[in-house]
Amino acid sequence: MSTRQIATSTLWQFGSQLLMAILSILAAKFVAVALAKELAGYYNSAYGYLQIFAVIADFGLYAVAGREMSRHKEPGKIFGAVLVIRTVVLFIALGSAVLFVWVLPQWRGTPFPMSVSIAALVPFFTILAGTLRAIFQVQYKMHFVFIAEVLQRVLTTGCMAIIIFMGVRLSTDVRMEELFLWIGAAGAILLFFLSLLPAHRLLPVRFTFDRTLIKYVLVLAAPYGVAYLGMAFYRQLDVVFISLLRPDFAIQNAYYGFAGRVEDMAFLVPTLLLNSTLPVLSARLAAKEDVRGLLGKTFLLLLVLGSIFFLFCFLWSRQLTLLFTTPDYLSTADHAGSDTAFRLMALPMFLNGLVLYCFYVFLALHQWRRLIVSFGIGVVLSVILNLLLTPMYGFTGAATALIVVHIFLVFLLLPPALRALT
Q1: pLDDT value at residue 70
Q2: DSSP characters over 42-97
Q3: Coil, strand or helix at 139
Protein backbone atom coordinates (compact mmCIF):
# COMPACT_ATOMS: atom_id res chain seq x y z
CA MET A 1 0.00 0.00 0.00
CA SER A 2 1.89 3.04 -1.27
CA THR A 3 1.23 6.72 -1.75
CA ARG A 4 1.03 5.98 -5.48
CA GLN A 5 -1.76 3.47 -4.92
CA ILE A 6 -3.64 6.01 -2.81
CA ALA A 7 -3.19 8.63 -5.53
CA THR A 8 -4.36 6.26 -8.29
CA SER A 9 -7.35 5.11 -6.28
CA THR A 10 -8.27 8.68 -5.42
CA LEU A 11 -7.90 9.82 -9.05
CA TRP A 12 -10.31 7.13 -10.21
CA GLN A 13 -12.79 8.34 -7.61
CA PHE A 14 -12.27 11.99 -8.52
CA GLY A 15 -12.69 11.15 -12.18
CA SER A 16 -15.93 9.37 -11.38
CA GLN A 17 -17.17 12.26 -9.25
CA LEU A 18 -16.19 14.82 -11.89
CA LEU A 19 -18.20 13.08 -14.60
CA MET A 20 -21.03 12.43 -12.19
CA ALA A 21 -21.00 16.08 -11.14
CA ILE A 22 -21.34 17.18 -14.77
CA LEU A 23 -24.19 14.74 -15.35
CA SER A 24 -25.76 15.73 -12.02
CA ILE A 25 -25.82 19.35 -13.15
CA LEU A 26 -27.71 18.26 -16.26
CA ALA A 27 -30.08 16.12 -14.17
CA ALA A 28 -30.76 18.99 -11.75
CA LYS A 29 -31.38 21.29 -14.70
CA PHE A 30 -33.81 18.79 -16.20
CA VAL A 31 -35.70 18.57 -12.89
CA ALA A 32 -35.96 22.36 -12.66
CA VAL A 33 -37.12 22.64 -16.27
CA ALA A 34 -39.53 19.69 -16.32
CA LEU A 35 -41.23 20.13 -12.94
CA ALA A 36 -43.12 23.02 -11.43
CA LYS A 37 -41.26 24.61 -8.53
CA GLU A 38 -43.44 22.94 -5.88
CA LEU A 39 -42.94 19.47 -7.38
CA ALA A 40 -39.20 20.11 -7.66
CA GLY A 41 -39.36 20.92 -3.95
CA TYR A 42 -41.02 17.59 -3.15
CA TYR A 43 -38.37 15.87 -5.25
CA ASN A 44 -35.54 17.58 -3.34
CA SER A 45 -37.28 17.11 0.02
CA ALA A 46 -37.63 13.36 -0.48
CA TYR A 47 -33.91 12.84 -0.99
CA GLY A 48 -33.01 15.29 1.78
CA TYR A 49 -35.29 13.52 4.25
CA LEU A 50 -33.80 10.12 3.39
CA GLN A 51 -30.22 11.29 3.92
CA ILE A 52 -30.41 10.88 7.70
CA PHE A 53 -31.82 7.36 7.47
CA ALA A 54 -29.19 6.45 4.88
CA VAL A 55 -26.42 7.35 7.33
CA ILE A 56 -28.18 5.32 10.04
CA ALA A 57 -28.04 2.41 7.59
CA ASP A 58 -24.31 2.97 7.08
CA PHE A 59 -23.76 2.67 10.85
CA GLY A 60 -20.06 3.46 10.47
CA LEU A 61 -19.58 0.13 8.71
CA TYR A 62 -17.81 1.37 5.59
CA ALA A 63 -14.89 2.93 7.43
CA VAL A 64 -14.60 -0.02 9.81
CA ALA A 65 -14.83 -2.51 6.91
CA GLY A 66 -12.03 -0.82 5.01
CA ARG A 67 -9.80 -0.70 8.06
CA GLU A 68 -10.41 -4.29 9.21
CA MET A 69 -10.29 -5.87 5.74
CA SER A 70 -6.91 -4.25 5.12
CA ARG A 71 -5.35 -6.01 8.12
CA HIS A 72 -7.42 -9.16 8.73
CA LYS A 73 -6.16 -12.56 7.58
CA GLU A 74 -9.58 -13.50 6.18
CA PRO A 75 -11.04 -10.33 4.65
CA GLY A 76 -13.86 -12.32 3.04
CA LYS A 77 -15.28 -13.26 6.42
CA ILE A 78 -15.05 -9.69 7.67
CA PHE A 79 -16.85 -8.49 4.56
CA GLY A 80 -19.55 -11.17 4.93
CA ALA A 81 -20.22 -10.09 8.51
CA VAL A 82 -20.39 -6.45 7.43
CA LEU A 83 -22.82 -7.44 4.67
CA VAL A 84 -25.14 -9.16 7.16
CA ILE A 85 -25.18 -6.15 9.50
CA ARG A 86 -25.54 -3.65 6.68
CA THR A 87 -28.50 -5.49 5.13
CA VAL A 88 -30.40 -5.79 8.42
CA VAL A 89 -29.78 -2.17 9.43
CA LEU A 90 -30.66 -1.00 5.93
CA PHE A 91 -34.09 -2.63 6.04
CA ILE A 92 -34.76 -1.23 9.52
CA ALA A 93 -33.58 2.31 8.76
CA LEU A 94 -35.25 2.83 5.39
CA GLY A 95 -38.36 0.92 6.49
CA SER A 96 -38.67 3.36 9.40
CA ALA A 97 -38.18 6.32 7.06
CA VAL A 98 -41.06 5.20 4.85
CA LEU A 99 -43.28 4.39 7.84
CA PHE A 100 -42.74 7.78 9.49
CA VAL A 101 -43.49 9.75 6.37
CA TRP A 102 -46.87 8.04 5.96
CA VAL A 103 -47.79 8.41 9.65
CA LEU A 104 -46.87 12.04 10.39
CA PRO A 105 -49.98 14.22 9.95
CA GLN A 106 -48.34 17.29 8.42
CA TRP A 107 -47.52 15.38 5.24
CA ARG A 108 -50.88 13.68 4.74
CA GLY A 109 -52.62 14.62 1.54
CA THR A 110 -49.35 15.73 -0.13
CA PRO A 111 -47.19 13.95 -2.71
CA PHE A 112 -44.39 13.72 -0.14
CA PRO A 113 -45.08 10.21 1.30
CA MET A 114 -45.19 8.58 -2.11
CA SER A 115 -42.12 10.55 -3.21
CA VAL A 116 -40.15 9.23 -0.23
CA SER A 117 -41.38 5.67 -0.80
CA ILE A 118 -40.09 5.64 -4.37
CA ALA A 119 -36.91 7.57 -3.58
CA ALA A 120 -36.05 5.09 -0.80
CA LEU A 121 -35.02 2.61 -3.48
CA VAL A 122 -32.09 4.89 -4.35
CA PRO A 123 -30.29 4.78 -0.96
CA PHE A 124 -31.21 1.10 -0.59
CA PHE A 125 -29.34 -0.05 -3.69
CA THR A 126 -26.72 2.70 -3.51
CA ILE A 127 -25.74 1.70 0.04
CA LEU A 128 -25.55 -1.96 -0.95
CA ALA A 129 -23.28 -0.94 -3.82
CA GLY A 130 -21.30 1.16 -1.35
CA THR A 131 -20.74 -1.94 0.75
CA LEU A 132 -19.14 -3.59 -2.26
CA ARG A 133 -16.98 -0.50 -2.70
CA ALA A 134 -14.97 -1.62 0.36
CA ILE A 135 -13.63 -4.54 -1.71
CA PHE A 136 -12.46 -2.22 -4.47
CA GLN A 137 -11.08 0.26 -1.92
CA VAL A 138 -8.92 -2.27 -0.10
CA GLN A 139 -7.61 -3.84 -3.33
CA TYR A 140 -7.22 -0.47 -5.07
CA LYS A 141 -9.47 -1.43 -7.98
CA MET A 142 -11.53 1.76 -8.01
CA HIS A 143 -11.84 1.77 -11.81
CA PHE A 144 -14.75 -0.64 -11.35
CA VAL A 145 -16.50 2.00 -9.23
CA PHE A 146 -15.78 4.57 -11.94
CA ILE A 147 -17.49 2.41 -14.58
CA ALA A 148 -20.53 1.58 -12.45
CA GLU A 149 -21.14 5.13 -11.20
CA VAL A 150 -20.73 6.79 -14.56
CA LEU A 151 -23.03 4.31 -16.33
CA GLN A 152 -25.60 4.78 -13.59
CA ARG A 153 -25.58 8.53 -14.10
CA VAL A 154 -25.64 8.18 -17.88
CA LEU A 155 -28.81 6.08 -17.59
CA THR A 156 -30.64 8.48 -15.27
CA THR A 157 -29.58 11.67 -17.07
CA GLY A 158 -30.32 10.13 -20.46
CA CYS A 159 -33.85 9.15 -19.44
CA MET A 160 -34.49 12.63 -18.06
CA ALA A 161 -33.16 14.13 -21.29
CA ILE A 162 -35.66 12.07 -23.28
CA ILE A 163 -38.50 13.51 -21.16
CA ILE A 164 -37.24 17.04 -21.80
CA PHE A 165 -36.90 16.28 -25.52
CA MET A 166 -40.55 15.17 -25.52
CA GLY A 167 -41.49 18.72 -24.51
CA VAL A 168 -42.28 18.42 -20.80
CA ARG A 169 -41.93 21.85 -19.14
CA LEU A 170 -42.90 22.98 -15.62
CA SER A 171 -45.30 20.08 -15.22
CA THR A 172 -47.77 20.18 -12.33
CA ASP A 173 -48.60 16.49 -12.78
CA VAL A 174 -47.47 14.52 -9.71
CA ARG A 175 -46.98 11.46 -11.91
CA MET A 176 -44.18 13.27 -13.73
CA GLU A 177 -42.35 13.89 -10.45
CA GLU A 178 -42.80 10.22 -9.55
CA LEU A 179 -41.44 9.22 -12.96
CA PHE A 180 -38.26 11.19 -12.27
CA LEU A 181 -37.93 9.38 -8.94
CA TRP A 182 -38.41 5.99 -10.61
CA ILE A 183 -35.63 6.89 -13.04
CA GLY A 184 -33.34 7.50 -10.07
CA ALA A 185 -34.31 4.12 -8.63
CA ALA A 186 -33.49 2.38 -11.93
CA GLY A 187 -30.06 4.00 -11.90
CA ALA A 188 -29.37 2.80 -8.35
CA ILE A 189 -30.33 -0.76 -9.27
CA LEU A 190 -27.97 -0.63 -12.26
CA LEU A 191 -25.19 0.69 -10.00
CA PHE A 192 -25.65 -2.23 -7.60
CA PHE A 193 -25.44 -4.97 -10.24
CA LEU A 194 -22.54 -3.33 -12.08
CA SER A 195 -20.68 -3.29 -8.74
CA LEU A 196 -21.66 -6.80 -7.69
CA LEU A 197 -20.24 -8.61 -10.73
CA PRO A 198 -16.60 -7.42 -10.55
CA ALA A 199 -16.64 -7.41 -6.72
CA HIS A 200 -17.56 -11.10 -6.67
CA ARG A 201 -14.60 -11.89 -8.93
CA LEU A 202 -12.18 -10.12 -6.57
CA LEU A 203 -13.64 -11.51 -3.35
CA PRO A 204 -16.55 -13.95 -3.04
CA VAL A 205 -19.58 -11.91 -1.98
CA ARG A 206 -21.55 -13.94 0.53
CA PHE A 207 -23.10 -13.49 3.95
CA THR A 208 -21.08 -14.64 6.97
CA PHE A 209 -23.47 -15.82 9.69
CA ASP A 210 -20.81 -16.05 12.37
CA ARG A 211 -22.16 -14.65 15.64
CA THR A 212 -18.72 -14.08 17.11
CA LEU A 213 -17.49 -12.23 14.05
CA ILE A 214 -20.70 -10.22 13.69
CA LYS A 215 -20.45 -9.22 17.34
CA TYR A 216 -16.79 -8.27 16.81
CA VAL A 217 -17.68 -6.01 13.86
CA LEU A 218 -20.64 -4.51 15.72
CA VAL A 219 -18.48 -3.66 18.72
CA LEU A 220 -16.00 -1.94 16.42
CA ALA A 221 -18.64 -0.18 14.35
CA ALA A 222 -21.10 0.87 17.07
CA PRO A 223 -19.12 3.86 18.41
CA TYR A 224 -18.49 5.15 14.91
CA GLY A 225 -22.06 4.37 13.92
CA VAL A 226 -23.20 6.73 16.67
CA ALA A 227 -20.66 9.33 15.52
CA TYR A 228 -21.82 8.91 11.89
CA LEU A 229 -25.38 9.39 13.06
CA GLY A 230 -24.40 12.58 14.84
CA MET A 231 -22.71 13.80 11.67
CA ALA A 232 -25.81 13.00 9.64
CA PHE A 233 -28.08 14.83 12.04
CA TYR A 234 -26.11 18.05 12.20
CA ARG A 235 -25.70 18.03 8.39
CA GLN A 236 -29.22 17.01 7.37
CA LEU A 237 -31.48 18.45 10.07
CA ASP A 238 -31.82 21.60 7.98
CA VAL A 239 -33.93 19.89 5.31
CA VAL A 240 -35.91 17.91 7.90
CA PHE A 241 -36.74 20.99 10.00
CA ILE A 242 -37.75 22.93 6.90
CA SER A 243 -40.10 20.06 6.01
CA LEU A 244 -41.49 19.87 9.54
CA LEU A 245 -41.74 23.53 10.49
CA ARG A 246 -42.59 25.36 7.28
CA PRO A 247 -46.00 24.92 5.59
CA ASP A 248 -44.32 26.05 2.37
CA PHE A 249 -41.55 23.45 2.74
CA ALA A 250 -41.79 22.31 -0.88
CA ILE A 251 -41.00 25.81 -2.17
CA GLN A 252 -38.32 26.36 0.48
CA ASN A 253 -36.57 23.10 -0.40
CA ALA A 254 -36.94 23.85 -4.10
CA TYR A 255 -34.67 26.88 -3.60
CA TYR A 256 -32.45 25.21 -1.02
CA GLY A 257 -32.20 21.72 -2.46
CA PHE A 258 -30.02 22.51 -5.46
CA ALA A 259 -27.39 24.19 -3.26
CA GLY A 260 -27.70 21.17 -0.98
CA ARG A 261 -26.71 18.91 -3.87
CA VAL A 262 -23.48 20.83 -4.34
CA GLU A 263 -22.89 20.72 -0.58
CA ASP A 264 -23.26 16.95 -0.75
CA MET A 265 -20.56 16.89 -3.44
CA ALA A 266 -18.35 19.04 -1.19
CA PHE A 267 -18.87 16.43 1.52
CA LEU A 268 -18.38 13.42 -0.73
CA VAL A 269 -15.13 14.46 -2.43
CA PRO A 270 -13.04 14.71 0.78
CA THR A 271 -14.74 11.54 2.03
CA LEU A 272 -13.46 9.67 -1.02
CA LEU A 273 -9.94 10.98 -0.47
CA LEU A 274 -9.99 10.04 3.20
CA ASN A 275 -11.46 6.60 2.47
CA SER A 276 -8.49 5.96 0.18
CA THR A 277 -6.08 7.15 2.87
CA LEU A 278 -7.61 5.29 5.84
CA PRO A 279 -6.34 1.73 5.09
CA VAL A 280 -2.76 2.99 4.68
CA LEU A 281 -3.01 5.27 7.71
CA SER A 282 -4.32 2.43 9.88
CA ALA A 283 -1.60 0.04 8.68
CA ARG A 284 1.17 2.57 9.29
CA LEU A 285 -0.14 3.40 12.75
CA ALA A 286 -0.29 -0.32 13.58
CA ALA A 287 3.35 -0.65 12.45
CA LYS A 288 4.22 2.50 14.45
CA GLU A 289 5.49 4.26 11.34
CA ASP A 290 5.60 8.03 10.86
CA VAL A 291 2.35 9.29 9.32
CA ARG A 292 2.97 13.03 9.48
CA GLY A 293 3.90 13.31 5.80
CA LEU A 294 0.82 11.39 4.68
CA LEU A 295 -1.51 13.44 6.86
CA GLY A 296 0.14 16.71 5.89
CA LYS A 297 -0.41 16.09 2.18
CA THR A 298 -3.98 14.96 2.85
CA PHE A 299 -4.76 18.04 4.92
CA LEU A 300 -3.32 20.37 2.28
CA LEU A 301 -5.39 18.73 -0.45
CA LEU A 302 -8.53 19.07 1.67
CA LEU A 303 -7.84 22.80 2.11
CA VAL A 304 -7.45 23.21 -1.65
CA LEU A 305 -10.66 21.30 -2.44
CA GLY A 306 -12.63 23.16 0.21
CA SER A 307 -11.37 26.52 -1.06
CA ILE A 308 -12.48 25.68 -4.60
CA PHE A 309 -16.01 24.85 -3.48
CA PHE A 310 -16.14 27.97 -1.29
CA LEU A 311 -14.97 30.38 -3.99
CA PHE A 312 -17.25 28.99 -6.69
CA CYS A 313 -20.36 29.04 -4.52
CA PHE A 314 -19.71 32.41 -2.89
CA LEU A 315 -18.47 34.37 -5.90
CA TRP A 316 -20.55 32.77 -8.64
CA SER A 317 -23.76 31.92 -6.82
CA ARG A 318 -25.94 33.52 -9.49
CA GLN A 319 -24.16 31.69 -12.29
CA LEU A 320 -24.42 28.37 -10.43
CA THR A 321 -28.14 28.94 -9.89
CA LEU A 322 -28.66 29.47 -13.61
CA LEU A 323 -26.47 26.45 -14.34
CA PHE A 324 -28.50 24.14 -12.10
CA THR A 325 -31.96 25.68 -12.45
CA THR A 326 -33.76 28.51 -14.26
CA PRO A 327 -34.06 32.29 -13.70
CA ASP A 328 -37.22 31.62 -11.64
CA TYR A 329 -34.99 30.32 -8.83
CA LEU A 330 -33.01 33.57 -8.42
CA SER A 331 -33.52 35.86 -5.43
CA THR A 332 -35.90 38.81 -5.76
CA ALA A 333 -36.84 41.71 -3.51
CA ASP A 334 -39.62 39.53 -2.05
CA HIS A 335 -37.77 36.30 -1.30
CA ALA A 336 -34.37 34.65 -1.13
CA GLY A 337 -33.58 32.25 -3.93
CA SER A 338 -31.10 29.52 -4.78
CA ASP A 339 -28.27 32.03 -5.29
CA THR A 340 -28.67 33.08 -1.65
CA ALA A 341 -28.57 29.41 -0.65
CA PHE A 342 -25.31 28.91 -2.57
CA ARG A 343 -23.67 31.87 -0.83
CA LEU A 344 -24.79 30.68 2.60
CA MET A 345 -23.63 27.12 1.96
CA ALA A 346 -20.18 28.18 0.75
CA LEU A 347 -18.64 28.25 4.24
CA PRO A 348 -19.97 24.82 5.34
CA MET A 349 -18.61 23.41 2.07
CA PHE A 350 -15.14 24.64 3.03
CA LEU A 351 -15.38 23.47 6.63
CA ASN A 352 -16.74 20.03 5.68
CA GLY A 353 -13.29 18.77 4.75
CA LEU A 354 -11.76 19.92 8.03
CA VAL A 355 -14.42 18.18 10.10
CA LEU A 356 -14.02 15.00 8.04
CA TYR A 357 -10.24 15.13 8.47
CA CYS A 358 -10.73 15.20 12.24
CA PHE A 359 -13.23 12.36 12.03
CA TYR A 360 -10.86 10.06 10.15
CA VAL A 361 -7.87 10.91 12.34
CA PHE A 362 -9.79 9.98 15.48
CA LEU A 363 -11.23 6.94 13.69
CA ALA A 364 -7.71 5.68 12.97
CA LEU A 365 -6.71 6.36 16.59
CA HIS A 366 -9.86 4.66 17.99
CA GLN A 367 -10.73 7.87 19.87
CA TRP A 368 -14.46 7.53 19.28
CA ARG A 369 -15.58 9.10 22.58
CA ARG A 370 -14.33 12.52 21.46
CA LEU A 371 -16.27 12.18 18.20
CA ILE A 372 -19.50 11.11 19.88
CA VAL A 373 -19.38 13.94 22.42
CA SER A 374 -18.45 16.57 19.84
CA PHE A 375 -21.06 15.55 17.28
CA GLY A 376 -23.63 15.12 20.05
CA ILE A 377 -23.11 18.73 21.10
CA GLY A 378 -23.27 19.73 17.45
CA VAL A 379 -26.64 17.99 17.06
CA VAL A 380 -28.07 19.72 20.15
CA LEU A 381 -26.83 23.08 18.88
CA SER A 382 -28.32 22.37 15.44
CA VAL A 383 -31.72 21.46 16.92
CA ILE A 384 -31.84 24.61 19.06
CA LEU A 385 -30.80 26.91 16.23
CA ASN A 386 -33.20 25.32 13.74
CA LEU A 387 -36.11 25.60 16.16
CA LEU A 388 -35.29 29.27 16.66
CA LEU A 389 -34.48 30.27 13.07
CA THR A 390 -36.21 27.96 10.59
CA PRO A 391 -39.88 28.74 11.38
CA MET A 392 -39.30 32.45 10.83
CA TYR A 393 -36.57 32.58 8.19
CA GLY A 394 -37.03 29.31 6.29
CA PHE A 395 -34.01 27.93 4.48
CA THR A 396 -31.86 30.99 5.24
CA GLY A 397 -32.33 30.29 8.96
CA ALA A 398 -31.55 26.60 8.49
CA ALA A 399 -28.39 27.46 6.51
CA THR A 400 -27.31 29.90 9.23
CA ALA A 401 -27.67 27.12 11.81
CA LEU A 402 -25.49 24.88 9.63
CA ILE A 403 -22.79 27.55 9.42
CA VAL A 404 -22.67 28.01 13.20
CA VAL A 405 -22.48 24.25 13.85
CA HIS A 406 -19.64 23.76 11.36
CA ILE A 407 -17.60 26.60 12.87
CA PHE A 408 -18.18 25.18 16.35
CA LEU A 409 -17.06 21.67 15.34
CA VAL A 410 -13.92 22.88 13.59
CA PHE A 411 -12.83 24.84 16.68
CA LEU A 412 -13.65 21.87 18.89
CA LEU A 413 -12.03 19.07 16.85
CA LEU A 414 -9.29 20.47 14.63
CA PRO A 415 -6.70 21.53 17.28
CA PRO A 416 -6.62 18.12 19.03
CA ALA A 417 -6.63 16.33 15.65
CA LEU A 418 -3.58 18.27 14.53
CA ARG A 419 -1.81 17.62 17.83
CA ALA A 420 -2.71 13.93 18.01
CA LEU A 421 -0.24 12.72 15.41
CA THR A 422 2.60 15.20 15.78
Answers
A1: 62
A2: HHHHHHHHHHHHHHHHHTTHHHHHHHHHTT-S-HHHHHHHHHHHHHHHHHHHHHHH
A3: helix
